[in-house]
Amino acid sequence: MKTKFSVRDFSLLLSLVAVWAFFAVTSPQYLSARNLSALSVELAITATLALGMLLVILPGHIDLSVGSGVGLVGGIAAVLVFNHGWPAPLAFLPAIAVALLVWLAQGALIVRQRIPAFIITLGGLLILKGVFWLVIDTHTVPVAPGGRPNLFSLLTTYYLPPLASYVVIAIVMAALVAVTLRARARRAAMGFEVDDPELAFLKLFLTGQGLLLFVLAVNQFRGIPLPVLALGLVALAIQVITRHTPFGRHLYAIGGNEEAAFVSGVPVQRVVIGAYVLLGGIVAITGLLQTAYAGAATTTVGDSMELDAIAACVIGGTSLRGGRGTVLGVIFGALIMASLLNGMTLLAVSPELKFIARGVVLTLAVWMDVKLARR
Amino acid sequence: MPALLEACAITKRFPGVTALREVSFDLQPGEIHALCGENGAGKSTLIKLLSGLHPHGSYEGELRLDGRPAAFRTIADAQRHGIAVIYQELALVPELSIAENLFLGCEPRRGALIDWEKLYTDARGVLASVGLDLSAETPVGRLGVGQQQLVEIAKALGKQTRILILDEPTAALAEREVDTLLELLRGLRAHGIACIYISHKLDEVFAVADRITVLRDGATISTHPTAATSKTGVIRDMVGREIQDLFPRVAHHPGEVLLRVDALRAAPSRDAAEQLHGISFEVRAGEVLGIGGLMGAGRTELLMHIFGAWGERRGGTVDLGGRPLPAGDPVGALARGLALVSEDRKRYGLVLERDIGFNLSLSSLGRLRRGLLVDEEAEVRANQRFFASLRVKAASLETVVGTLSGGNQQKVVIGKALMTEPRVVFLDEPTRGIDVGAKLEVYELVNRLTAEGKAVVLVSSELPELMGMSDRILMLHEGAVGGEFTRDAATPERLLAAAMGRTPAAA
Lengths: 375, 507
Description:
The complex is a heterodimer of chains A (375) and B (507).
Chain A: H1 7-26, H2 33-57, H3 66-82, H4 88-112, H5 117-136, E1 141-142, H6 151-157, E2 159-160, H7 162-189, H8 197-221, E3 224-225, H9 226-244, H10 246-256, H11 258-263, H12 268-294, E4 296-297, H13 305-315, H14 327-346, H15 351-374
Antiparallel strand pairs in A: 1-4, 2-3
Chain B: E1 5-14, E2 17-27, E3 32-36, H1 43-50, E4 60-65, E5 68-70, H2 75-80, E6 83-86, H3 98-102, E7 109-110, E8 113-114, H4 116-129, H5 145-157, E9 163-167, H6 175-190, E10 194-198, H7 202-208, E11 211-216, E12 219-225, H8 231-239, E13 257-267, E14 276-284, E15 288-293, H9 299-307, E16 312-320, E17 323-324, H10 330-335, E18 338-341, H11 345-349, H12 356-361, E19 369-370, E20 373-374, H13 376-389, H14 406-419, E21 424-428, H15 436-451, E22 455-459, H16 463-469, E23 472-477, E24 480-486, H17 492-499
């Protein structure tokens, strides 16, 4: 409903520009087409998972098990394809089904038995990790037998051709303009304040420029990577769910004041379980993408991805107590995390320093957010 | 001899309300002095002042201790002067032992470490002084409420207390425990410890107090030696006022029975003691049933339980519109046309960080739908209708609810309930903490609802409000019906007597 930019959104934008500027200066390849393309794939995977995390953080819960889940889903699919010779699309089905069931079970345990999500999903982190290693027998299981590309490996190696990429971006931009104009007209008709026309134009203009720059850059390499399209669809779905469905309103209401939501007739348990099941679906998507990106299911796939997802949410202004957070914020948060990681990898920063830098950025972002929120 | 503690012409104002008006009160050494008054008479405000919770400077008038002016800035300040308050909600840590609780925050030390030996030795002495025959190592959580209360008192005595203030100390106690407590207070009196005793239970007051002071509407009405007054006299002083015609009540024409509650029994949780004991009543279309009772009588629990948001059913039935209403299902209750406006709007009513529109439509989203999505145009139309008809004073529907005044927040909660198009509306203390103008609007709204043929159940602590707005009044006493009155038969004395569990004839 609301599309106002707040100081917070600007602070995210500024942090992002600062990160990019730093790496652009220190590492010449950072802004190369090839690297930007890789960065966009990494962003897409992190952001997709973070958007799923948003669904359970909004009602005030958390999920530590998504990283292990990502590994497990990819592992099941890889084993079915590589060891058992299943066609990739068929192998996806049981992997996705397992994720949905596991998250249904976790959600049900959390709300029905009233065990804190932190505990249940901490257990899930360990159990799913163990099951994952059992499934792949702690071996490396490639996603494509004999290196022949299949649908699994194509998940992160397919690129929308440049021409199609331009068309897609043009359609997205046109849709954004149409939605913005329609929302403005409706808000005005209902007597709400609307943005100043110049400001509204500026926002659209900047968004358009961003999209254009992005497509120009990736087209110099191979075009829009498939994971970015997946992220686009997931983001659209989550945006619609959180903003325009009763279910989404209920997520915010439960996070804002669970007792009031309950007394207001919000089916609290069903909504929270629903959020976990949706997250399960997103874990499945992320698992397939991440494993495809790694090229094989190995014991480290998915490691600490839950932390990146939570960090992206928090950096993007999501409150861990629930009730506050937006899709756009989470995507920005993921973009900052992904840009940072990618840049440090290019600079060949040692893993230990990478951890420290990620921690510092997370802490700094939350501190800034708290400062701004108090004003 | 100067009074031990004296309050001289104390006036305490809150924004929009004067809670105490020139109240005077004195406590003599070695005296048990009872404070009586209806809910909201100013008893709690007075104790908060005496105990330093409302600091010196936030009120007008003077406190004197031993005849000298006293200025308590904090609770600790008052404690240093020997004043201790035992509140209804006990402030003990259940996981710690009795001894650890007794000396919490002032543990005896040897160097940097706690001197456990001394702590447990001292604890035994203190326990003996209140007649508690328990091991000092018992975790407090294993004690009953009565024993915990004694531990609280022991804790206060350990701090050289000269003045003990007890706020409704027996509300949760069984009869034997009450006797123990009263005996203890008499013993302390013999040792020169004075006590201010606040209770709704007149039997206790008359059993233990030396003098009784009655407060009403924030003013001192009377102070009598116990021997020179009677229960009837105290009740008359507590009620006292003429019911003014503040209430724009219109004649009602009750129709069919919409809600029938029969022998309802319920407890807070599976293994807790029963708190509602066989309550029966019915409400008809187009009428207002008032429910009154003292603090802790079970009014809020009754409404919340029928609505499905509190406790576990132990017996009895609820019929809504002629069909049974299952227990524990607020979603179902709302769908069947029962809406609840909670007494605690911040806790059970509002998502404070969201805007007015979000809160207004929260209970009605299932209805405001087009396919899977919220029909935002229909939603805004509905929101605007209630925003306007309830006259919520705010810039727009997008104003964050947390920034509104109490009265306007209350209107949002009521609007949310009414948007569900209920047939039966529960209003639990709908005028608590809101100003007079907003109160009048709530009363007018109640009239509008009954005119539309809805049934209203109004819970209120204020007798004038109950008598002014209700067709019938049900008084609860300790989780059971203490009496039911038609509008014409209700007098303040009878209602209060029923609330105190005394037969109307005796009042």
